[in-house]
Amino acid sequence: MFSSFSAPSARGRGAVRLAVATLVSGLVAVTGVMAGAGTAVADGTAQNQGGATATIGGLKTYGAAVIHDAAGDQELSAGLFEMSVEGGGMLQTYCVDIRNPTQKDAKYHETPWSGTSLGANKDAGKIRWILQNSYPQVNDLAALAGKAGVKGGLTEQDAAAGTQVAIWRYSDDVDVDAVDPQAEKLADYLEKNARDVAEPKASLTLDPPAVSGRSGERLGPVTVHTNADSVTVTPPADSATSGVTIVDGDGKAVTSAADGSQVFFEVPEEAAAGSAELTVQASTTVPVGRAFASESRSQTQILAGSSESTVSATASAAWAEQGPIPALSAVENCAAGGVDLTAANKGDEDFTFKLMGIEHTIAAGESRTVTIPLQEDQAYDFTIEAPGGFQKRFTGVLDCRTKGSDTGDSTQLLTEPSPATVGGTSPDTNLAETGSSGATPVIGGTAIALVVIGGGVLVLVRNRNTPTKG
Fold first, then answer.
1. pLDDT of residue 358
2. Residue 57, Cβ neighbours under 10 Å: how many?
3. For residue 149, what is the enclosing H or E element?
4. Pairing of the two strands 53-69 and 420-421
C-alpha cells in the first residue's frame, strides 16, 4: 500500500527526493536525513484509492489446517477474520497470503487485484467463485454440506476452515489440508468445482484521482464510480476562503452524486497557485471478492462478506496562472513489479523531474506514466517537488507475491516464538493466526537511501540543488 500528499506545482523544473528502506537476504538498508536547509516534506496520509478502510480484529470463526512442505507437517489456524470499518460497518475476510502473519490492529484499504498477489494469479477468479459459493455467503450449512457431500453436516468452524483451505490452494499454491474431515471434504468440493469469475468493481472510486489546470478554469472532470445509490460530496475544507467550489458540468454546486456523475473543481480567476481536495462518501456493501491490502507488512485479505459500511474516496486539484501544472497520482502495479506514477501536465511549459537518477519530461498538455521498479517487500518513500515548495509524496511497501516453498521460507508453527525483527521481536505479530514470518520493518527518511539490490548497495543522494544520482 502507499500514501500520498497532494500539492500544486509552480513554475520551473520538478525534482524528487527518494528514500527507500528494505530488508533483503538479511541485509538491512537504513535511510537517514541529510543535514542542511531544504523544503519541508509534507506528511503522508493514508492513500485511499477508493472504497473501505478497515482495521483487522483477528480470526473469529476458524478451525485447524495442516500445511505440508519440506520442513514437515505444520499446523495453523484457518478461517474468517473480522475487520471494523472506519465510519461504521464490519467486514469478514479470508487470507490470500498464508506465509505472512497478520499484524495486530493493522489498517487495510480496499485495493484492486492488480495491487496485490492476485493480480498475477491466473486462479484469482476461482477464489472469487469459492467466496460466492461457500460460507458465509452460503449460510445454510445443511445445504452447503449436501452440495459438498459432507455426511454429518458442517459447523460454522468447519465451513470457515474448509473454505480457507480451498482458497489457499489457489492463492498460495500450497499443499494444505483441513484437520477436520468435514472441513476437508468441503475444501475438496470447492477446489474441484471452482470456476473463473471476473474481479468485482470497487465500492467507490474517483477517476482520475488528480487533475490540474489554470486559475479561472473548471478543472476536471472527475468521474464517480460506485455501487452505492448515491454519494455525499464534501468540498475543500477552505472553500469558504479560497473560493474553490465543486460543481457539475453546468457549473451548478454539487453536494451529492451518483454512479457515472462527473464533478469539477471551479477555481476563481484571481486564485493564487494552490491545491484543493474533494471527498466523496457513501454507505454500501462492499462487493465479495474485493482485495484488502495493509499499510504494514500484514497478510493480504479477500472479502467474504460485508455489512452496510462506510466507503470514501478523494480527488485533488492543482492550479497556477502559468508554467508547468502537473497532476500527480500513483498506484502499485504488481504485474510490473513497482509503482506506476502518472503525471499529467496542464500547464504551458514542460514539467521535468528526476526519479531514480533518470530525468523525465512531461510536455505541456501531455500525460505519461512512469514505472518505478521495486523489490518485493521493499518500502518506498519519494517526494516530487517543484520551486515554491510545492510537492507530492508517495510512501508504502510493495507487497505483490506470496512466498512459495521454493524461496526457502516455511510457515511458522503455532507454538514457535515470534521471529526477530530489527530492534527485537515485533510485539504486533499475531502468530496465533495464519502466517509465518515477521513483518519487514519500514525505516523512513528523506534524503539518503541505501537500496539493497542483489546483495549490493545502491546509494541515492540528493540535496535541494543537486540532481539525484544512481
1. 84
2. 15
3. none
4. unpaired
Residue 317 neighbours by CB distance under 10 Å:
27
Q: What's residue 164's pLDDT?
A: 98
Distance CA 65, CA 168 (A): 11
End-to-end CA distance of the chain: 25
Record the pTM: 0.79
pLDDT at 392: 83
Q: Which residues pair with 257 in a beta bridge?
A: 231
- Full strand arrangement of the beta sheet holding 245-247: 204-207, 218-226, 262-266, 245-247
Go through 206-235 and write b for each residue having 16 or more CB atoms within 10 A of its CB, e for each that does not: bebbbbbbbbebebbbbbbbbbbebbebbb
204 strand-pairing partners = 226
Amino acid 344: pLDDT: 94
Q: Which amino acid is at 469?
A: K
b/e sequence 293-302, b meaning 16+ C-beta within 10 Å: bbbbbbbbbb
Q: Cα dist. 49→13, 19, 257, 363, 412 in Å?
A: 28, 23, 18, 26, 33
Give the relative orientation of helices 141-148 and 181-193 as an angle to the nearest 10 degrees: 70
- Joined together, the cell numbers standing for residue 106 give 493493522
Q: Find the helix packing angle between 141-148 and 156-171, rounded to 10°.
A: 50
Cβ–Cβ under 8 Å, residues 176 and 162: no
Residue 389 is predicted with a pLDDT of: 55
Q: Which parts of the chain register pLDDT below 70?
A: 1-48, 386-390, 403-470
Region of residue 220 (phi > 0: left; psi between -120 and 50: alpha; otherwise: beta): left
- Sorted by sequence, the CB contacts under 8 Å of residue 255 that are 6+ apart come out as 232, 233
Q: Which residues contact 456 (CB under 8 A, 6 or more apart)?
A: none
Tell me the CA distances in angstroms from 32 to 123, 341, 374, 452, 460, one per residue in order: 41, 24, 19, 15, 11
Q: What is the DSSP string of 204-260?
A: EEEESSEEEEETTSEEEEEEEEESSS-EEEE--TTHHHH--EEE-TTS-B-SEE-TT
Check if the beta carbon of residue 118 is closer than 8 Å to that of residue 93: no
Burial class (CB in 10 A: 0-12, 13-18, 19+), 352: middle
Provide the mean pLDDT of the chain: 79
187 DSSP 8-state letter = H
The pLDDT value given to residue 13: 52
- Give the span between the Cα atoms of 55 and 96, in whole angstroms: 17
Residue at 146: amino acid letter: G
Query: Which of 100, 91, 197, 56 is closest to 440 using CA atoms?
Result: 100
The confidence score (pLDDT) of residue 390 equals: 64
